[in-house]
Amino acid sequence: MAIDSSASLPLSWPRRHPGKLVLLAALALLLIFGAPKSPVFAALYEWSPALAVGFGQNILISLLAIAIGSLLGLLIGALAVSPLWITRLPARIWVQVFRNAPWLVLIYFTTYVFPFELHIGKSWIAFPDWVKVTIGLALPASANVAEIFRGAIGSIPSTQWEASRSLAFTRGQIFRSIILPQCFKRMLPPWMNLYAVITMGTALASLVGVHDLIDTAQIASNTVNLTGFTVLIYFSVLALFFAYCYPISRITQFLERRYAFS
Amino acid sequence: MPSPETRAEQPLISLRDIHLSFGSNRVLRGIDLDVQRGQAVSIIGPSGSGKSTILRCITGLLQPQRGNIRVGETEVHKLKSEAQRIELRKRVGFVFQQYNLFPHLSVLENLVIAPRKVLGRNSAQAEQEARALLAKVRMEHKADAYPGQLSGGQQQRVAIARALAMRPELILFDEVTSALDPETVGEVLTVIRELTEEGMTCVLVTHEMRFAEDISDVVYFTENGLIVEHGSAEQIFQRPVSERTQAFLRHALGDAGRRPAAAGDPYLLSNISRYGLSV
Ligand SMILES: Nc1ncnc2c1ncn2[C@@H]1O[C@H](COP(=O)(O)OP(=O)(O)OP(=O)(O)O)[C@@H](O)[C@H]1O
Ligand SMILES: [Mg+2]
Questions:
Q1: Among A45, A78, A115, B158, which residue has the least CB neighbours within 10 Å?
Q2: CATH number at residue A237
């Protein structure tokens, strides 16, 4: 699993990075053909489905967190640029609080403050730990999205406002038809960057007992109890996160370069 | 309600004793200005003398602290709400030095968006009209291009067409050729000249003295927030009374060098890194 992902990673840039590609291919071959002979690699092979499931949990948390965080963040960002201080103030406070709080603290907070079940109507709905972690990550995500949004709005030249006003647009129309469409393009790179960081942040989930990749690696390491295996499995964990986040960051860089010229 | 006859005599735009300051900076210090319907009026004067500010006051983008502004039947200084100013702006076109086209919209979309969203015209009609206007400014072949793909002169002609798409009663031009390469200035001036010949009421702030002299019915010379002198183009350019006007014209006409184009693309996304992230 780990081997496959890391080997397929540079395929998008095969021409630009032939050296790295050859190196990774060699590493992959070594692992694939060396694996069956060594107990350490055999154990890794055995544990790889569990690791995959664990990483799936991380990805699920990251996707949900960025989705909730984005929706919430756009709403808060819109409030933060409102001309009314009564809506602006709470939005600014939200942003400052959740942007500056350590993520682990927020995760502990949501995990231990929220109940483990929710009473809705007559039924009890389970509120599992991974959902709480998702919310714990969605909070700083929303604050960062709000700030990215506010920054994007501020980065639109004021002449665009003036030109729109001179064409008799209302403030709302200017926002919807002129400013927002230009914002989303500008927000994409920092937003993807945020997503990559959130994904890395999901590693914190294991600290509150969510069965994610790190947690699985820990269990595997304790069960197999070989030093070589422990090193290898955390190396695989690293490779998995890297394989997932690196392409995102490369695409982000690509978009940044492209928008810088257009 | 004045009858049509009295309306014809009364200027379309009239400014009386306009005072405006930004903080302690007194930018306009008593401006009087009249524009008859169908006239082309130029405002000339040194940089920072408040020419752009006058235009912004006319269309309600800025509100003077003192004085009366009337555009047609509208007492601009009495407008209380943004909604009322929006009604005024529907009738007044504005063309900017930096074109300020909407970069995310195609040329055609730049022209139809305001008529559709602001005036509620139907798409097909607005589009047909937009194409006719693009033909008028000789940009019909670029209807589907984006502003970033056009030269400055082309963008400025599109900006003029965009203002015309609102079917305004008058158009304000704020140094619309100052950011252009010398080769493309002519194509924009030609479009403006045609508009004035068709009887569109135009107020131009310009540094193109020859052009102003050529097309203007009336020329105003401003300095330090005051109208120093005004009169027919012939009078101002051939027989200026004020020494200040004479000095300015000597400088402006004698000095063939054009002002440098404003540098930099305002849409440059140079500062992505400002979106810092803390974990
Ligand atoms: N929004 C603003 N806030 C503060 N000061 C302003 C603002 N707009 C203009 N000013 C000031 O008002 C003065 C006149 O500006 P204005 O743009 O009307 O001059 P101008 O005659 O159009 O000059 P130019 O030929 O350089 O365009 C300048 O000193 C300028 O700094
Ligand atoms: Mg100006």
A1: A115
A2: 1.10.3720.10
